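ZP: hey, is the S-adenosylmethionine complex queued? I don't see it on the tracker
AM: it wasn't, my bad. submitting now with these inputs:
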Amino acid sequence: MTNVKKFWEVRAEQYNELQWANEKTYLDALIKAGDFKSDQLVLDVGTGTGIVLHEIAPLVDEIIGLDISQAMLDHSNWQGNKFFVRRDISDPFFHEGVFDRVTARMVFHHIIDKTQDAANEVYRILKPGGKFLLSEGVPPTSEVKDDYEKIFALKEERLTFMPEDLIGLLENAGFKNIQPYTYIMKEMSVNNWLEKSGLEQEIQDEILEMHINAPAYFKEAYNMKISRGACLIDIKYAILVGEK
Ligand SMILES: C[S@@+](CC[C@H](N)C(=O)[O-])C[C@H]1O[C@@H](n2cnc3c(N)ncnc32)[C@H](O)[C@@H]1O
């Protein structure tokens, strides 16, 4: 727990400056898939600094951000219809069947031991007919999955999901009418991602080098290009909506 606490304390400092996290077209894709309405109560799991929560807040009645990291929550804005709690989603806290929507962007790959417990808990706290909006970055093709895992192993302890793994997670939790969407973020700067990651310079350099010197199939899968000194790649995100 201490390592996890420290990890997020370091990341929290520059999290709001990450290009991918603020990319408007990604946030718009989430909003579109979520079908939010003005009478809804929403829970944003792993809300972090609240970037997704702030987009949803004007569209709904109330939204609660839940996160294990106080450091990340400290960078949130608590005004208006926004509330925050410091909890682990795997540990039951809310009553059964209270939320209209639960969202979780780029959170579940961090829930290493209790992944299914966390999905089951989301299912439990949703109202019947309520929806879970789950989004994760995924390898662009199965061919580059090993490369993807090697790169991320240098950055953090995490899970790698393919879209079908996420569908299985939702199905096992009991969700039905699962709708899978794909969002491609064009020309994400690997340099920005590394500079704002809180990683030691040595590791940043190593990850950048792995991109620059990657085999042709990797560069092609990521549509990689170098522009004005920056390494740009297209990132694939899976967005899934499951109904209780
Ligand atoms: C990559 S950040 C994503 C933040 C936000 N959802 C966004 O898209 O900008 C992942 C967040 O998940 C939180 N987190 C990780 N495991 C969690 C758990 N078991 N329960 C609640 N939050 C968790 C971390 O503390 C971190 O703030």
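AM: back. The first helix runs from residue 2 to 12.
ZP: great, adding it to the tracker
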